[in-house]
C-alpha cells in the first residue's frame, strides 16, 4: 500500500496549525533548529550536571525508537511498570518511517525502557516494544476512519497510563474529527482500556463517557491524568474537556478532580468515585454533587499530574499562552501555585517567555513519574509543524525543570 493510501488521522493538518495561525505568530527565521536548547550552566564552584535539554527520542536516523519499529510519533506518555520496575511510553499516532512516512502504525503505540536515568546524564533509550520487541504495533483492536460500534471515529488518542495491582490502564479519547466547528470539541467518546499482561493485549471497560458526536459536547471527562495512588489509599484523577485538537474554542482551561478506591477502579465501578466539589459555601469530598472546577483560564491541551517526592506536580500545554506550564500543590485538593511557563513556542511573546527553551509548534508536556524530584522534573514535549512528511514529528526530553 502506498503512503497516500494509508489511514491518516492528520490528513487535514489542522490539529497543529492553530498553534501558528490561531495565535497570529510571526515565527520568522525560527525553525526546527530552535527545538534543542543548551543545558543550563552550573553555578560557579558546583559540579557540572549535564541534563537533557530538548533531546529527540524518535524521528532520527538509527535511533532507539526506530530499532523498535517506530520511526516517528508524538506524546510518549511515560508511566512506571511497577511489576518489574521498568518504564513505558505511550505514543499517539505513529509511523514506521521518519517524518510520518512508511506504514501508519496507529494509536496508541507503546515503547518500553529497562531503566531510566534520573540524573539526566543519558537520554531515554527504548529497549523493547509492544506487542513484541522490535515491532511496535497498535495496542487497541479497532479500525481508523470507521464506525467500530460506537459511531464514526478517526483515531483513539491516549491521555495517560498507569499500572497498579498487576493491571495496566490507558485512558483515551476517541476523535470524531480534527476540525470541529467553533464551540465543539470534536470527540466521539472517552474510555478506559486495560491490560492484564502488562501491555500486550487490551480490553475496553464497557462504560464509556459520551463525547461531542454522541451528544455530550465539552464533557469534563474527556481527558484524564492519573496522579497516582496517594498514601491515603485513594487513586486521584484529574480530568478536563477534550482539547487534543488545540482549537477547542469553548475549552476555557477548566480542570476537575475526583478520586476512587483502586479496587473499585479495577472492577470498573466508576460510580464509586468521590468528587472534590464546592457545596454549601465550602469545598469537600462528596458523592452527592459532581466535581467542581478547581482551575481555569486559557485553553489547555494535553496535561499531566504526578506525585513526585510527596509534591503534586502539574504540567500542561497552555494553548493561549503558547507554552508548557507547570504548577505544584502539597495535596491534590490543596491550592495550586501560579502557572509557570517552562518551554515556549515563541520567546518574543510575554516577558515570562524570555530566555525559556523555545520549541515552535510544541504541545504535550508530560511529567515523567521517575523525575529526580519535585524541583527537577523530566518533561516529554511533542513537536509537529502540521505538515506531513516534513521534520519534525517527534518527542523531546527536558530534564531539571523546576516548577
Question: Can you characterise this structure?
Answer:
The protein has 403 residues and is mainly β. The protein has 3 helices and 30 strands. Strands 18, 19, 20, 21, 22 and 23 form a 6-stranded antiparallel beta sheet that branches. Strand 9 (131-132) and strand 10 (135-136) form a beta hairpin. The longest helix is centred in the middle third of the chain and has 5 residues, at 262-266. The model is unreliable at 1-47 (pLDDT under 50).
Using brief descriptors, characterize the structure shown.
single chain; 403 residues; mainly beta; six-stranded antiparallel β-sheet; five-stranded antiparallel β-sheet; 3 helices; 30 strands; disordered N terminus
Q: What's the helix and strand layout?
A:
Blueprint: H1 14-17, E1 53-56, H2 64-67, E2 72-73, E3 77-81, E4 86-91, E5 94-95, E6 104-106, E7 109-113, E8 128-129, E9 131-132, E10 135-136, E11 146-147, E12 152-153, E13 155-164, E14 167-175, E15 187-195, E16 203-204, E17 209-210, E18 223-229, E19 235-240, E20 255-260, H3 262-266, E21 274-279, E22 282-286, E23 293-295, E24 300-308, E25 311-318, E26 323-329, E27 340-344, E28 362-367, E29 377-384, E30 393-401
Antiparallel strand pairs: 1-30, 2-5, 3-4, 4-7, 5-6, 7-8, 9-10, 11-12, 13-14, 14-15, 15-16, 15-17, 18-19, 19-20, 20-21, 20-23, 21-22, 24-25, 25-26, 26-27, 28-29, 29-30
